[in-house]
Design a protein that fits this description.
This protein has 735 residues and is α/β, with parallel strands linked by helices. The chain has 27 helices and 20 strands. The strands form 5 sheets. It has an 8-stranded parallel beta sheet with strand order 5-8-9-4-3-10-11-12, with helices on both faces. It has a 6-stranded parallel beta sheet with strand order 13-20-17-16-14-15, sandwiched between helices. α20 crosses α25 and α25 crosses α26.
Length: 735
């Protein structure tokens, strides 16, 4: 089925019919017949040793790979927290089935116990004695790896071999001192099982790593965690491996993802002539020569991108719009503007107000007022068609998040009518490595102006837009969609209904909180997020209850400030889940976020997450610490991060009650049968949502389901999944 999907896509893109095919019921004879067929010109062999040998024996060009037995060296100059988290991240990625995942780690004696303790804190459980024997006997059968262990979780492996491990254990480890067929833990394991070795010195550690690679992994992968460039170079020269990495999770870095820029994306890794293969790099069209490649961990250049012009304070709109009439260098100016809005803005008179301001400074103005909540691709296409008729040079998104998101989408599809939603909304792991380049903007619309009339979305300053197709919401993202002008005028918010004040306000709060704990959070975004959180806790209740001018203005500003934060550090799984629930049940976005928020905090605020979010600057789990920092910012006191997180959740709960926001989706009126009928689909789509990768804890689909269940009935998340026992820090706080 996977092959059929790929073939159909290739044919649709212009490839010859039957460009891809597969043998559904392979046998040795049939495989040999296919490889010997005159129509076969090249063989890529990724199976076991027998398949690789058979492919080479055909006499045809063959590209083969080999086994991996990746060794890791941790020296006394390394960032030990980052090294421990990187190793656990790499070892748990796909349950260790990637052949480049960390198999054995050699640690210099002087830091051994400290490093071992850090591994244990990150969910690595060590076994000894009889339990070690049971695990070893289950791991290796007849001199090779037991297929029943491959790709299984630590909990499943423990159950199968009859040992007990803690519920928060994500890797099973043991210690060893020897390498060879008599030591089962020196083999390649293809599972979240790892071996720890001691070495008296760097040179001894280097030699031990080389012997591990020689034993079952020649030509494949070796990793060093060190801040000594001379040692890194010596390690690279000594290893009988071609995939060499420094200070990264090897399984993730080796397949060309977020931690480096010089490893081509591929799940097929050659081992060169060192390991009996014809290629020594990741399999690509250029895989013709042996290459040694050292990819060091690199922190991305970061940025703070906002609209070039941001106007704020009450009644600033007229003066801000007047600037649109200013000529460009050379003397020309824009003269045609289209307002993208909804019917409510027309009925309230806001659209007419802005239209008159534009006409008074010489603009010809058209209005597209067909935007509905959760703008659809059909709405965006209709707006683009209206632009094609009117030829605007300026687009003005006027309203809440929906008109502003629609304006962003209309600009893209007006300037690029050939664009497809599934392409511009294609998911990506790293912004610099997106598979579908985002279209340029500015060829027809010189300026995109956004004027928010609600206080929550922050869309006036962000590079995001959410466009709906059917029941699925596509979160689009590109800094090319960032508005050129944002006008933040709280006078538009004077007459907002209380429910909209509440729902939009908590949406802004979730934006700020998720931006603060995101894996991409930084000093600049945290400053904005903190200010937004403080303003919202201080002024949102007053804005809701009494609607005073001061409170409405401060909440309006807070929404934009939160928007600046998440525009540059992104969001998390609260929004991933909310997008799916809102698309299916049409619940208000802010309310949906608010119901999910505390359960997501529970999920994120752990020291040993099942998976950690992937971002080079995010070196170890920090969510609990960051939630505690926000708690302090709003005046909470506590003896530990755990205690502060609980108080932060309590303050959020109290705020929601003061805003009359339901505590659960059951209270919100969602039918239980309808909810649970699609709950698995909601979880799967949330996993694939573009907001998920920035979450500090990278989720499993089953974990997202647990969050959805707790958000429906209000039961604590800990009643449905293991959140790790309240550790020494929590016990101390309790005492």
């Amino acid at each position: 089925e996977a092959m059929r999907v790929c073939r159909d896509a290739a044919v649709a893109a212009g490839a010859p019919p039957n460009v891809l095919d597969c043998v559904e019921h392979p046998t040795l004879e049939l495989n040999r017949h296919v490889m010997d067929h005159s129509g076969i010109k090249l063989i890529v062999a990724t199976g076991g040793p027998g398949m690789v040998k058979a492919s080479y024996s055909t006499g045809k060009p063959a590209l083969g790979v080999g086994a991996g037995n990746a060794s890791v060296l941790v020296d006394d100059t390394a960032d030990l927290k980052m090294a421990a988290s990187s190793i656990v991240m790499g070892k748990t990625f796909d349950n260790g089935v990637i052949c480049a995942s960390e198999q054995s780690t050699v640690v210099i004696e002087s830091i051994f116990e400290e490093f071992k303790a850090l591994l244990q804190k990150r969910g690595v459980h060590f076994v000894y004695g009889e339990e070690r024997k049971k695990l070893g006997e289950f791991l290796i059968k007849g001199g090779s790896i037991n297929p029943d262990i491959v790709g299984q979780s630590a909990q499943t492996i423990a159950q199968k071999c009859g040992i007990k491990i803690p519920g928060d254990a994500v890797v099973i480890a043991t210690e060893a001192s020897e390498v060879g067929p008599h030591e089962p833990f020196s083999f390649e394991k293809l599972s979240p099982v790892m071996t720890l070795y001691r070495a008296a010195s760097f040179n001894e550690a280097k030699d031990l790593c080389a012997s591990i690679v020689h034993f079952g992994g020649e030509g494949h992968t070796a990793v060093i965690h060190s801040n000594d460039e001379n040692r890194i170079a010596a390690f690279a020269a000594a290893m009988p491996a071609h995939h060499l990495f420094a200070n990264v999770p090897s399984s993730i870095a080796a397949v060309g993802t977020a931690f480096n820029f010089n490893v081509p994306p591929s799940l097929t890794l050659g081992v060169g002539t060192t390991g009996g293969s014809s290629i020594a790099t990741n399999l690509t069209p250029a895989s013709l020569i042996n290459v040694k490649l050292m990819a060091s961990r690199q922190e991305h250049m970061e940025w703070m991108k906002t609209p070039p012009n941001l106007y704020f304070n009450r009644n600033c709109t007229r003066e801000a719009i007047a600037d649109l009439a200013k000529p460009y260098p050379g003397g020309k100016r824009d003269t045609r503007a289209m307002i993208i809005t909804d019917r409510a803005m027309v009925e309230f008179g806001y659209c007419t107000k802005v239209q008159m301001m534009l006409e008074q400074i010489g603009f010809k103005v058209a209005v597209f007022d067909e935007v509905a909540p959760d703008p659809t691709i059909e709405c965006v296409r209709a707006g683009a068609a209206a632009c094609e008729q009117f030829k605007p040079e300026v687009l003005i998104g006027l309203g809440g998040g929906s008109p502003m998101d629609a304006a962003k989408g209309i600009r893209v599809f007006y300037e690029h009518p050939e664009a497809k939603l599934e392409d511009v909304g294609a998911r990506f792991i790293e912004l610099r490595k997106r598979t579908c380049p985002f279209p340029d903007t500015g060829s027809k619309v010189h300026k995109l102006v956004c004027i928010p009339t609600t206080s929550g979305t922050g869309s006036e300053v962000t590079p995001f837009a959410v466009i709906t197709e059917g029941t699925h919401k596509y979160p689009l993202f590109s800094y090319r969609m960032t508005p050129d002008v944002a006008i933040v005028d709280s006078a538009f918010c004077d007459n907002l209904p209380k429910s909209l004040v509440a729902n939009a306000g908590v949406d802004a709060l979730v934006h700020a909180i998720e931006a603060y704990v995101s894996v991409a959070s930084n000093d600049f975004t945290k400053a904005h997020a903190t200010r937004a959180v403080k303003l919202l806790f201080e002024y949102l209740p007053e804005s809701y209850k009494n609607g005073t001018i001061r409170a409405r203005e401060m909440v309006h500003h807070a929404s934009t400030i939160a928007g600046i934060a998440f525009a540059n550090s992104f969001l998390g799984i609260t929004h991933s889940l909310s997008h799916q629930i809102g698309g299916a049940f049409h619940t208000p976005h802010g309310m949906t976020n608010a119901i999910l928020m505390e359960h997501v905090i529970d999920y994120n605020a752990v020291d040993a997450p099942t998976r950690m979010g992937v971002y080079p600057q995010y070196t170890h789990p920090l969510a609990k610490q960051r939630y505690a920092e926000l708690a302090r910012a709003i005046g909470c006191n506590g003896n530990s991060d755990y205690e502060l997180v609980q108080k932060f959740k309590q303050r959020i709960s109290e705020l929601k009650k003061s805003l009359d926001i339901p505590a659960t989706f059951a209270e919100a009126g969602i039918n239980k049968d309808a909810y649970y009928k699609i709950i698995d689909s909601l979880a799967e789509h949330a996993f694939d949502d573009q907001c998920t990768p920035a979450n500090p804890r990278f989720p499993l689909v089953t974990e997202l389901r647990h969050i959805l269940e707790s958000a429906y009935d209000g039961q604590p998340l800990s009643s449905r999944m293991y959140l790790e026992p309240k550790d020494a820090e929590a016990n101390k706080a309790k005492a």
